[in-house]
Amino acid sequence: DVPKVPDSRADSDGARRGSLCDRHCAAIYNVQGDLGDLGCHLHRPRVPPAMSTPSCYQQHSEEVCESCVVKTTLTAENAVEANKLSNNYKFGFKKWKSHVTERPWEDRSEIVKELYSDLNVIRGSGGSTLRCGNVLYLLLFGWWLSLLYVLVAAVMFVTVIGAPYGRLCWDLAGYFLWPFGKAIQKAEVPKSHQVCEAGAGESSALLGGPTPRRWRPQCWAGTGHWHRAGTAVWLCLGYPVLALAHGLVCVTAWLLIVLIPVAKLSARATSRVLLLPPERVLIRRLKMTEVPLEGEVILCCYRAANPYYYKYAVDGINVFAVNLLPLVLVTLVLGYADSPNHLTGSAIKFTLALLSIMPLSYYIGMAIASISAQSNFAVGAVVNATFGSITELTFYITALIKGSREGNRCYAEVVKSALTGTLVGCVLFVPGLCMVIGGIRHQEQRFNSRSAGVSSALLFLSVGGVFAPTLFSKVYGKLVCGECHNVTQNPLGHYLCHNCHFDLMDNNGTLYYSHVQPLVYTVSILLPAAYLIGLFFTLKTHTHIYDIHISDCHMPGHHHSAVVHWSRWRALVILLLSTLCMSACADLATEHISPILTNSTISQYFIGVTVLAMVPELPEIVNGIQFALQNNLSLSIEIGNCIAVQVCMLQIPILVLFTIFYPTNFTLVFSDLHVYASMFSVVLMNYIFMDGKCDYFQGTVLVMVYFILLAVYFFAPSPSGC
């Protein structure tokens, strides 16, 4: 699996091995924390030779370079991150891209540092402030925010005692109309009137001339009672209106993500600027060449939009997951408080419930990764096996319960469609999409074919076991048709029949209860046993298949003590709360899916295969894409394979076990379309992954085949009973 290195016949084997190691040693810091290139990855920091650490290099040069062909060395900032990286390559563990600990500030790029910086830093050269994002701010917020300040200034002038605050609002009206290239400074209070007199002739190094009168600190003579009265008027009439407006701007800009600098601007203005005495607020217009201001700079903004804010995280949680969390609360309140559907219909509630599953899946994944990284192997394995499929199982079980209560077989068919859709999507769409996106940046991507072969073998076994009862029923079942018409008007002629299916309940269900049901139970026992054997094989006896080595060397400046985002107890609480909310959202989704299934013109097959199957897997898809962009296609493939294996070897046996204690309409007999689509997908996937390398063309083939299957499901008639 190691890329070939051009060699010359004059070179010796040792020289070729050394050149290969030297070629890959520099790749260790291409991506901080996660590296997917197979081969020899020594821990050689990307620093000048004078600053390198020869002890670390000498320590691992012989040890790793001698195993250059079989080792993949990963580096991490601390032991917790190293444990998380190691878990990513373990079969059966959830693959997680985001960090579970705080990254050292000095290791972050300048782009990321700018995302977390406060808006109080003056640059040496601000450049032009006429940008698309700034113009967007003017159109969305600037004009009406400035007008509101003018109106508040007029009200404060009318009160007379609030005139200083009126002047402040007048100045801030011009600032918030176009705040870019300007700074708000906290000025010192003058000790006597001589400071004010001397201030009339002072000049500003920023502006290159006398300070305009309206930018100077004002010596307000009205102290004592009148000053306190003016502040009271401001806090009663002016501040609440402006705080409400800035709150609206802050929330709107935060939800748009790229305008988070505007949200920071509004939040800082509300909490700092508007609560200062008016004589201590100084507004300056910065020029291209300026010197640092004397005194504290409260606000200084140069641009309103930054497209890199999709990387922004709050306490380790991505900003998208943070913004979608209120959607969960809205869904739960609206779903249970408006049961008769007076405010909204079932379609809206179903959509909200389905969308709420996405952030909850993210929180569950983050919690599982945090607990596994901070615990030993046994605890991590139990947590991954218990909660790894909780998202899908929660929805499936609630749907089966509702179908059993209503006596509607359609819910069981939708669950089967969702199971098949998850299997097909994770085998074709997830790796195919990762190949396409990763292939745009990397011409050819390589992955560990041996580890992929283990998942492929388990997939073959699981698909054969899952569909064995279906094939058995096709062979021994009795074909029953609902409507038959004689085409030739001859009793011995041809008949055209509709709604045909294999009846397993003939002769009081003798075939089903005596043959099919025992086969289902046998398969449901063997599949989890095979899954456990696969875990023991890959994690205990044949760990060398994954060729992972965690380096214990660190770059200068790295922190060896881990500062985790979520402790184990906090992660456990979040995991349980997210699971509880997931159950509630799944209950709402199944409660309001019935009108969609009955009134929709789209096949129930298509709804189950697409929406119900792939929406809960969106966080996993995003993780796979991020791994592929970093040339770590092995983890992208493992994400899809592990989900597909868990569907067949864990989720389906659990559903069968559930039907024993709570009888439902779920039987392990699938339609022909599900059988053919699943088997063809697994065969195609194994053919593509045979050589251990791929490009964007092979990924395009997988994606196109997936969309062809979606078209088949779209035009397929609804299953019987729906």
Automatic annotation (TrEMBL):
<feature type="transmembrane region" description="Helical">
    <location>
        <begin position="519"/>
        <end position="539"/>
    </location>
</feature>
<keyword id="KW-0050">Antiport</keyword>
<keyword id="KW-0812">Transmembrane</keyword>
<keyword id="KW-0109">Calcium transport</keyword>
<keyword id="KW-0406">Ion transport</keyword>
<feature type="transmembrane region" description="Helical">
    <location>
        <begin position="452"/>
        <end position="472"/>
    </location>
</feature>
<keyword id="KW-0813">Transport</keyword>
<dbReference type="GO" id="GO:0012505">
    <property type="term" value="C:endomembrane system"/>
</dbReference>
<feature type="transmembrane region" description="Helical">
    <location>
        <begin position="343"/>
        <end position="365"/>
    </location>
</feature>
<feature type="domain" description="Inner membrane component">
    <location>
        <begin position="132"/>
        <end position="182"/>
    </location>
</feature>
<dbReference type="Pfam" id="PF01699">
    <property type="entry name" value="Na_Ca_ex"/>
</dbReference>
<dbReference type="InterPro" id="IPR005185">
    <property type="entry name" value="YccF"/>
</dbReference>
<dbReference type="InterPro" id="IPR004837">
    <property type="entry name" value="NaCa_Exmemb"/>
</dbReference>
<feature type="transmembrane region" description="Helical">
    <location>
        <begin position="602"/>
        <end position="622"/>
    </location>
</feature>
<dbReference type="GO" id="GO:0006874">
    <property type="term" value="P:intracellular calcium ion homeostasis"/>
</dbReference>
<feature type="transmembrane region" description="Helical">
    <location>
        <begin position="377"/>
        <end position="398"/>
    </location>
</feature>
<dbReference type="GO" id="GO:0015369">
    <property type="term" value="F:calcium:proton antiporter activity"/>
</dbReference>
<keyword id="KW-0472">Membrane</keyword>
<keyword id="KW-0597">Phosphoprotein</keyword>
<protein>
    <submittedName>
        <fullName>VNX1 protein</fullName>
    </submittedName>
</protein>
<dbReference type="InterPro" id="IPR044880">
    <property type="entry name" value="NCX_ion-bd_dom_sf"/>
</dbReference>
<feature type="transmembrane region" description="Helical">
    <location>
        <begin position="696"/>
        <end position="716"/>
    </location>
</feature>
<dbReference type="InterPro" id="IPR004713">
    <property type="entry name" value="CaH_exchang"/>
</dbReference>
<feature type="domain" description="Sodium/calcium exchanger membrane region">
    <location>
        <begin position="571"/>
        <end position="713"/>
    </location>
</feature>
<feature type="transmembrane region" description="Helical">
    <location>
        <begin position="571"/>
        <end position="590"/>
    </location>
</feature>
<feature type="transmembrane region" description="Helical">
    <location>
        <begin position="668"/>
        <end position="689"/>
    </location>
</feature>
<feature type="transmembrane region" description="Helical">
    <location>
        <begin position="317"/>
        <end position="337"/>
    </location>
</feature>
<keyword id="KW-1133">Transmembrane helix</keyword>
<feature type="transmembrane region" description="Helical">
    <location>
        <begin position="418"/>
        <end position="440"/>
    </location>
</feature>
<feature type="transmembrane region" description="Helical">
    <location>
        <begin position="135"/>
        <end position="161"/>
    </location>
</feature>
<feature type="domain" description="Sodium/calcium exchanger membrane region">
    <location>
        <begin position="349"/>
        <end position="468"/>
    </location>
</feature>
<dbReference type="GO" id="GO:0005774">
    <property type="term" value="C:vacuolar membrane"/>
</dbReference>
<feature type="transmembrane region" description="Helical">
    <location>
        <begin position="643"/>
        <end position="662"/>
    </location>
</feature>
<dbReference type="Pfam" id="PF03733">
    <property type="entry name" value="YccF"/>
</dbReference>
<feature type="transmembrane region" description="Helical">
    <location>
        <begin position="241"/>
        <end position="262"/>
    </location>
</feature>
<keyword id="KW-0106">Calcium</keyword>
